[in-house]
Design goal:
alpha+beta, Jelly Rolls, nine-stranded antiparallel beta sheet
């Protein structure tokens, strides 16, 4: 087996070298592909059209999206202004005075990564502060017979520890003042991502009006089915869409893929409609109500041989004291080298005693001190006797109060018809800054929102995908952060191959070989496939290194190839001219004599 393991080690080493060569080759290719093509930037004042700079490996043209249908609100921030937005000037109630003010900063700027020239967004710039900003709709949205489609983009550029990126659709009311926008300002819908710790949420909350007392109550949609962790950590721009239909159905999309769907009547907590019947709060359980399903058998009798006093463990009667056991020697003795400290006060500290140390005499003996037999389970142990259980003939079931009609019952079959919306607002607290918002749109047509997304978010997605490293580059980057991954890579590639070779080519005895030249003395038949495999890998290493050198000189060769051909042609023409001139010269007298 030793030769086999030697070849196995050589195999793994060669696989590691080839893997490294391939990774380096692919890294160079990825870097070349990721190079930015310098392009001219054409700007038109009337269209806002711009072309890409050195951020992507292909030419990108961005044009501010324009709604293709009726919208109630649309905002791109591409003008770099917040003229239509109002920052809150109020204070948050029930908060410490030093943090109660809505003084968080907002800026309009481009993305940190994967920039699209000309595309700007709203960025939350402060951490550990309250932020509030809002903008009115072009016209109020009234919940009647048309769907509501709300869509916007979010990018957690620095990830997020604790904070939200949700929006509020502020209710239409006479006393709505955007400068006084705060956490208790009435809203109709709250929608968007929120995270704190390991709790990942995608909110869809609406405020339902009780038709009896006209009080509002928040209704929370069920949690999204999608895994939301990447949304908060991958630093990419994500598209959030809410579609709410007049038939009370709703659907939530993340990056245009369905993440959750349901119905306002059946899939929210607490339910929109209260139960028709409730427990009677005045009803009480009768004193003689028997809820015991099982009872001890009253006719059962304890057996005469049942010993309740028998212990659970007893000394092992078959155990014997080991020979050489030192009964008279204590297990620990005072340390003979210890001395009483000079500052020891017997009146205050008591009589001084040397610390205990293991008895040296016990080190060579089986044990010291009084020997005790080890304990074992008592075969006669039964424990305390209890009568077996039988069905309770008087069992009446689990008591519950009687039902009465709910005095607060109502039935609202159209919870879609909420309070009209007049403004959109962001009221947020975050422990992480640089949260990017862009391309808000509120419409009644999903197709309008889809076209809007194609002209805005779709371009961001394309740029991010183009700048994303390849699979091999990602593996290399991961291994740079965690070097132990190289071992995983090598074992993943080399171990299956090596085991396959060992099992497919079993050992063959020397007597079975018909001919064995001296040059092959070191390599038996069962080792030849491994030998060939290793040499093939060595060749591949050389091939990759040569390929790199050849590739580096390809451009020079291509550039100088035509020049060399032209020089060769000129030399041939000069030689032909010299021969022609010699043939036309008159021979000398000596040459004639010869």
């Amino acid at each position: 087996m030793k030769p086999r393991w030697g070849w196995m080690c050589l195999l793994l080493l060669s696989v590691a070298m080839v893997t490294w060569a391939q990774e380096e080759e692919l890294d160079e290719d990825d870097e070349e592909e990721a190079q930015v093509e310098d392009g001219d930037v054409d700007s038109e004042a009337d269209s806002g059209e711009m072309t890409a700079d050195a951020n992507v490996s292909f030419q990108v043209t961005y044009k501010t999206p324009v709604p293709t249908g009726e919208v109630f609100f649309a905002e791109t921030f591409d003008d770099g202004l917040l003229s239509s937005w109002t920052k809150s000037k109020t204070m948050k109630e029930d908060a410490d005075e030093d943090i109660a003010k809505y003084d968080g900063k907002w800026e309009v700027e481009a993305l940190k990564e994967n920039k699209v020239p000309g595309d700007l967004g709203l960025v939350l710039k402060s951490r550990a502060k309250h932020h509030a900003i809002s903008s009115p709709l072009s016209k109020p949205y009234i919940f009647k017979d048309r769907p509501l489609v709300v869509q916007y983009e979010v990018n957690f550029q620095d990830g997020i520890d604790c904070g939200g990126a949700y929006i509020k659709l502020l209710s239409d009311s006479p006393d709505l003042d955007l400068e006084q926008f705060h956490d208790r300002t009435p809203y109709s819908i709250m929608f968007g991502p929120d995270k704190c710790g390991e709790d990942y949420k995608l909110h869809f909350i609406f405020r339902h009006k009780n038709p009896l007392n006209e009080d509002f109550e928040e209704k929370h949609a069920k949690r999204a089915d999608a895994d939301l962790r990447k949304v908060y950590s991958d630093k990419k721009t994500h598209l959030f869409t809410l579609v709410l239909n007049p038939d009370n159905s709703y659907e939530i999309f993340i990056d245009q893929s369905s993440a959750s769907k349901g119905n306002l009547l059946t899939d929210v907590i607490p339910p929109v409609n209260p139960p028709k019947e409730i427990d009677d709060p005045k009803d009480t359980k009768p004193e003689d109500w028997d809820e015991r399903a099982k009872i001890p058998d009253p006719e059962a009798v304890k057996p005469d041989d049942w010993d309740e006093e028998a212990p659970a463990m007893i000394p092992d009667p078959d155990a014997l004291k080991p020979d050489g056991w030192l009964d008279e020697e204590p297990e620990f003795v005072p340390d003979p080298t210890a001395t009483k400290p000079d500052d020891w006060d017997e009146e205050m500290d008591g009589e001084w005693e040397a610390p205990q140390v293991p008895n040296p005499a016990c080190q060579t003996a089986p044990g010291c001190g009084e020997w005790k037999s080890p304990t074992i389970n008592n075969p006669k142990y039964k424990g305390k006797w209890k009568a077996p259980l039988i069905d309770n003939p008087n069992y009446q079931g689990v008591w519950s109060p009687r039902k009465i009609l709910n005095p607060d019952y109502f039935e609202d079959l159209e919870p879609f018809k909420m309070t009209a919306v007049r403004a959109v607002g962001l009221e947020l607290w975050s422990m992480t800054s640089d949260i990017y918002f862009d391309n808000f749109i509120i419409t009644a047509d999903k197709e309008v929102a889809d076209r809007w997304a194609a002209d805005s978010w779709g371009l961001k997605k394309l740029v991010a995908s183009a700048n994303e490293p390849g699979v091999f580059t990602q593996l290399t980057l991961a291994a740079e952060e965690r070097p132990w991954l190289w071992v995983v890579y090598i074992l993943t590639v080399g171990l299956p191959i090596g085991l396959g070779v060992l099992f497919c080519w079993p050992k063959v005895s020397t007597s079975q070989l018909f001919y064995k030249p001296k040059i092959w003395t070191f390599c038996t038949l069962h080792q030849f496939p491994l030998f060939l495999f290793v040499n093939t890998h060595i060749f591949l290493i050389y091939f990759f290194s040569e390929e790199k050198e050849n590739r580096s000189g390809d451009e020079d060769a291509a550039a100088g190839g035509e020049q060399e051909e032209e020089e060769d042609e000129e030399e041939e023409e000069e030689e032909e001219e010299e021969q022609a001139s010699k043939s036309n010269e008159t021979p000398s007298d000596d040459e004639v004599r010869l």
